[in-house]
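hey
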């Protein structure tokens, strides 16, 4: 099986629909209503996942050429060399280390190719799997921001992590990155 990272494509909509239908935690992750219709998912693909611009680069994680997850670098800020990292994986592809390897690979790409120096992310404190992914991908926990996020009217504390260009590179499998040149 070949796993790689590449930009999302409009033709990925069927795979995205499958992922969103299979994972009841994915509509929230993609800022969609529960059980979104096809049009809503297609609109989100266009507005969020298809971004490949100076401030946002979103990478599909593919297994055997089918997208099964996503790692996004958003809020790319050139003055301070920072970006925000977020990720999700379809349920069928979870639990085999793919997300951890994908996040570590995307981080390396952002540090080396985009020339960023500090990558940040945050997870709800009740999401231990995401904490594990972040930690293993080299993102050091930095603290808890109280009641930072609101989902369905409930506010959640969020633990933030960051990986610096000078941090040790974790020993993990690396995915191939097939991406157009990105302007540093
Ligand atoms: C969080 C998510 C990305 C994890 O994806 P995944 O493919 O299972 O991740 P990996 O297989 O690379 O690693 C998961 C790690 O979490 C651990 N884990 C899983 N469930 C856990 C739990 N309940 N408590 C503690 N650790 C847990 C696994 O054992 C594994 O760690 P290990 O490699 O040391 O064994 C996935 O569940 C997801 O997409 N969730 C919905 C969206 C989301 O929460 N995104 C993150 C937002 S911050």
């Amino acid at each position: 099986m070949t796993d790689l990272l590449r930009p999302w494509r409009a033709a990925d909509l069927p795979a995205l629909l499958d992922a969103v239908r299979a994972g009841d935690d994915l509509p929230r992750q993609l800022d969609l209503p529960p059980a979104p219709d096809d049009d809503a998912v297609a609109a989100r693909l266009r507005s969020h996942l298809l971004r490949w611009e100076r401030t946002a680069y979103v990478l599909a994680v593919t297994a055997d050429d089918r997208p099964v997850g996503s790692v996004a670098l958003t809020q790319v800020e050139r003055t301070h060399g920072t970006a925000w990292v977020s990720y999700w994986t379809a349920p069928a592809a979870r639990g085999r280390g793919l997300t951890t390897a994908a996040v570590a690979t995307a981080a390396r790409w952002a540090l080396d190719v985009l020339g960023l120096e500090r990558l940040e992310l945050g997870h709800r404190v009740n999401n231990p799997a995401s904490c594990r992914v972040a930690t293993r991908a080299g993102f050091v926990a930095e603290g808890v921001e109280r009641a930072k996020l609101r989902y369905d009217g409930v506010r959640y504390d969020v633990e933030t992590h960051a990986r610096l260009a000078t941090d040790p590179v974790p020993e993990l499998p690396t995915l191939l990155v097939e991406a157009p040149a990105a302007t540093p």
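Helices lie at 13-22, 26-29, 38-49, 98-112, 128-136. The radius of gyration is 16 Å.
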